[in-house]
C-alpha cells in the first residue's frame, strides 16, 4: 500500500534494523524501544489490523508466531519469557495502520496494561 511506512520497510524502501526476513515477513528493532529487547514482526502484505485477519491471510499470522518462537530461541529469551503485543485501533493504541506484533523482552512486564 502506498504511503504505508511498514509496507515501505517490508519492501526495503525505508531502512530499518532488520533481524529476520523471509518472503512473507520482516522482523526489525523498534525505533523507540520500551524494553532492552523490542522488535516488531510484520507481514510484507498490507493488513491494516487484527480486524482484517481472515481465512485468506491467517497463514501469515501463524507464520509470524512461528518466526517469533524461532527468534525467541535464538535471542535466548524463550526460557525467561517475553510479551507479544498487537495493538488494534485507536483504543488499542495502534499508531501504525499495518498489523505488527511487538516482542518485548529482557525485563519483567506488569499486568494489567495501562
Ligand atoms: P503501535 O503503537 O502502532 O502498536 O506501534 C508502532 C511502533 O512502531 C512503535 O513502537 C514505534 O516506535 C514503531 N515505529 C514507528 N515508525 C517506525 C519506523 O520507521 N521504524 C521503526 N523501526 N519503528 C517504527
Ligand atoms: Zn502497509
How would you characterize the overall build of this protein?
The protein is an alpha+beta fold and 114 residues long. It has a single domain (5-105), classed as HIT family, subunit A (2-Layer Sandwich), CATH 3.30.428. 24% of the residues lie in helices and 22% in strands. It has a 5-stranded antiparallel sheet with strand order 1-2-3-5-4. It is globular. The N and C termini lie far apart (31 Å). The mean pLDDT is 98. The structure holds guanosine-5'-monophosphate (5GP) and zinc ion.
Helical fraction equals 10-25%
Q: Give the cofactors and ligands.
A: guanosine-5'-monophosphate, zinc ion
Series of secondary-structure elements, N-terminal to C-terminal: HEEEHEHE
Q: Please tally the helical runs, counting DSSP H or I stretches of 4 or more residues.
A: 3
Would you tell me the structural class of the helices and strands?
A: alpha+beta
Name the CATH superfamily assignment: HIT-like
CATH architecture descriptor name: 2-Layer Sandwich
- The rounded Rg comes to 14 Å
Provide the domain count. 1
What is the CATH T-level topology? Answer: HIT family, subunit A
Largest sheet composition? 5 strands, antiparallel
Low-confidence stretches: none
What would the principal axes of the Cα set say about the shape?
A: globular
What average pLDDT do the residues reach?
Answer: 98
Q: How many strands appear in the DSSP assignment?
A: 5
Q: What percent strand?
A: 15-25%
Span between termini: 31 Å
Query: Which sequence of strands runs across the widest sheet?
Result: 1-2-3-5-4
Text of the CATH class? Alpha Beta
